[in-house]
Write a structure and sequence with these properties.
The protein has 15 helices and 18 strands. It is of the alpha/beta class. α5 packs across α10. The radius of gyration is 23 Å and the shape is globular.
Length: 448
């Protein structure tokens, strides 16, 4: 049942489409601007509703999306969770209304140097590493991290920062018409969110928008270097460190997964990119680069890795537990398996996997080091689908949930084995988030 509340009848309004954390931040921004707005969300109780009493919208529309509201609207500010083909958005575009995301508004109004980071995997980690590095070098008050990792971008317009590090998703990129930055970072692209983007090609096209209008592009794959032609400069952050791999050996000896090296490289490359834009360094000066590499590595040695990302918890009865709940797509799980076989050897991993596959091709799981697997325990909405495509290559069993999976791992393990939660799927079929899923795993194995 739709709910409509009129607080004040006003025309020429801003429409906030979607009222979660992003929508609430848009409302706070419009309050500061003294611009009237109305709110629309298909949910009866969106998460931003708890702030409604102090935000004072002109109208509140809950329970459905109704394009007829656009007769009162001059601009639509859309939240990232809203589909590109939402009926209100489609009608707004057809009527020539202004449609913007909060990111676009921030990019227009912020005076800071903006670093945009996207990719299928590693966005939050790279932003957090870069934040530690840049705050150490430039000062804590000059750098802020925004987006999924920090506060919503529009909340940061109240203060002046020199550098804004922004994690930006494919949802935001898809909905944004114009994206610009000082540094645009494309970490990697592999299949994910195909329930929204429908194909890997479409998903990749959306991700590459981050390179379309940036002063300096950082890419993690050579195939994206061609896309950056015409931009002032581009750097491949992986090849940038050729000949300097020894610098990262200490992190591996501490048990860091090997795939974390790419995130370290990307975060240091962000610092290099900013220095290049400031004309403080010359990439042909090898001695200068080596000093920057070494000083950056020394700063990042004290970096504390984020939870739920190949998080080695410890051992119980000879069985090592690893929480990789953030692995919400196949490529993340494959990287976890590669790290596990490198460190623990073959036929050691008891993998707990499953959830909402988001229409990924789950057969891709077989493209990884399946020799490391002792058995796979499947749970969640798409457990049957996953079993059907992998059962001929690996031992597999469906379970009711994490508790049963962990019990079976104990029952079927030997000393030296590894219980790895790396779902390759979204958590939303059974949990509120990957964090809740990971925290439950930690509690059940006694490492909370």
């Amino acid at each position: 049942m739709a709910l409509v509340i009129f607080f004040e009848r006003v025309n020429n309004l801003n429409l906030i489409l979607g009222f979660g954390s992003t929508g609430a931040s848009v409302a706070r921004y419009l309050v500061r601007k003294n611009e009237p707005f109305l709110i629309m969300d298909s949910r009866q109780e969106p998460s931003g509703l708890q702030e409604i009493s102090r935000l004072n919208p002109s109208e509140l529309h809950l329970g459905r999306f109704d394009p007829s509201i656009l007769s009162k609207v001059s601009r639509v500010i859309v939240s990232p969770g809203i589909s590109y083909n939402n009926p209100v958005l489609k009608t707004a575009r057809h009527q020539g209304k202004i449609v913007q995301t909060d990111i676009e508004i921030f990019l227009k109004e912020s005076k800071s140097k903006v670093v945009l980071v996207t990719g299928t995997n590693g966005k939050t980690t790279v932003i957090s590493m870069a934040e530690k590095l840049l705050k150490t070098i430039y000062g804590k008050k000059k750098v802020i991290s925004l987006g999924n990792i920090g506060k919503p971008v529009l909340d940061a317009l109240e203060k002046d920062y020199e550098i804004s590090l922004i994690e930006i998703s494919s949802f935001h990129l898809e909905l944004s018409t114009f994206i610009s930055s000082s540094v645009g970072v494309l970490l990697n692209v592999s299949q994910d969110h195909l329930d929204r983007h429908k194909s890997l090609e479409e998903y990749e096209k959306v991700k590459k928008k981050i390179l379309s209008n940036t002063k300096l592009a950082l890419v993690g794959d050579k195939k994206y270097e061609v896309y950056t032609k015409g931009i002032i400069k581009h750097l491949n952050f992986n090849t940038l460190f050729d000949g300097h791999e020894v610098l990262f050996s200490e992190f591996l000896s501490r048990g860091w997964p090997e795939h974390e090296n790419a995130n370290l490289k990307a975060s240091i490359a962000i610092y290099l990119a900013l220095e290049l834009l400031n004309k403080n360094i010359d990439l042909t000066d090898i001695n200068c680069l080596e000093k920057i590499f070494e000083s950056s590595i020394n700063i990042l040695k004290s970096y504390k890795r984020l939870p739920h990302r190949y998080e080695i918890l410890g051992a119980r009865n000879g069985l090592t537990f690893i929480n990789d709940s953030k692995a919400t797509n196949i490529s993340s799980t494959l990287r976890a398996l590669e790290s596990a076989v490198e460190f623990y050897g073959p036929h050691k991993v008891l993998l707990i996997c499953g959830g909402d596959s988001k229409e990924q091709n789950m057969a891709e799981l077989l493209n990884g080091p399946v020799n490391c697997l002792k058995k796979v325990f499947l749970f969640g909405k798409d457990s049957q689908l996953i079993q059907e495509v992998i059962y001929q290559k690996v031992a597999v069993e469906q379970v009711s949930g994490l508790e049963e999976a962990i019990k079976k791992c104990f029952d079927e393990s030997k000393k030296g084995d590894v219980c790895l939660l790396s779902p390759a799927c979204a958590s939303t079929d059974m949990f509120t988030s990957y964090k809740e899923r990971g925290n439950l795993f930690k509690t059940l194995v006694g490492f909370d």
